[in-house]
Design goal:
88 residues; globular; Ribosomal_bS16_CS
Amino acid sequence: MVKLRLKRCGRKQRAVYRIVAIDVRSRREGKDLRKVGFYDPMKNQTYLNVPLILYFLEKGAQPTGTVQNLLKKAEVFKELPSNQMKFN
């Protein structure tokens, strides 16, 4: 099963995160399938590759709670067909 989750990057006390599609069994810093976005909590910046995110969501990828909140804030779920909305 594939999940969309955050992968920590950056230096100590200055974390930035990549939003990646990754296998559930992989650890946080493990090998990802694709990089689909970027999130900087210090500057509150978000970059999302929306077509790629929609592709993974349509194939059944489940976003984690934090990634789901970021996607809701960016209104990505409005672009999904209504029958694809199977998240919490």
